[in-house]
Amino acid sequence: MTQVLEQPTAESIDVEVPQLVGLMAEFRDVDSVMNAARHIRDQGFQRWDVHTPFPVHGMDAAMGIKTTILPWLVLGAGLTGGATGFGLAVFCNYLDYAFLISGKPFISLPAWIPIMFELTVLFAALTAVFGMIGLNNLPRLYNPLFKSRAFKRVTNDRFFVVIEASDPKFDEHKTQMMLNALDAASIERVED
């Protein structure tokens, strides 16, 4: 008796359909990408980014980027480190093991400056490094933009604006028409 094998159907095969991540517009010069950034900001988009081969002065203002909270985190951590050093010295030299040496006071701030300074620097430095990594969502080892052949020129001579599909104002057709109106050299769908 021969056994007949069924042919797989589209429903039985788990096919991954590419999902739209956003639209990427290519610009040829700084002025056009700055103009595009201002226009996109004014339209109220929230989830978008500009990629350039070098730092462009004024781009943060053009994009409407607010200042980071990182300096306040570093200040708080530095103050916490200094207070921790002071508390450790008080505990060790006054509460836990009080030892009278030549009539010197138990709470002697000048003697504790080195440990307070070292813990201030340690706490602030670690907060600066790990706060920057956390606030920048790093490490991010993959981005769908890496699949684009055009995006490889971002490190050389091209400027790109990427508007994410997760943005509340994103509508593929309207967003593409807006980017066309901004004189983008090319517009590409970014899929993953």
What does this structure look like?
The structure is a single chain. With 192 residues, this protein is of the alpha+beta class. The chain has 2 domains: 20-67 and 139-191, Alpha-Beta Plaits (2-Layer Sandwich), CATH 3.30.70; 70-135, no CATH class. The chain is built from 5 helices and 4 strands, in the order βαβαααβαβ. The chain has helices at 30-43, 59-63, 70-96, 109-135, 172-181, and strands at 20-27, 48-51, 159-164, 186-191. A 4-stranded antiparallel sheet has the order 2-3-1-4. The longest helix has 27 residues, at 70-96. The model has no long low-confidence stretch (mean pLDDT 92).
Q: Please state roughly what percent of the residues sit in beta strands, choosing from under 5%, 5-15%, 15-25%, 25-35%, 35-45% or over 45%.
A: 5-15%
The overall number of domains is 2
CATH architectural label of the largest domain: 2-Layer Sandwich
Number of helices: 5
Briefly note the structural class of the backbone. alpha+beta
| Shape verdict | elongated
Q: What is the class of the largest domain in the CATH system?
A: Alpha Beta
The tally of beta strands, per DSSP, is 4
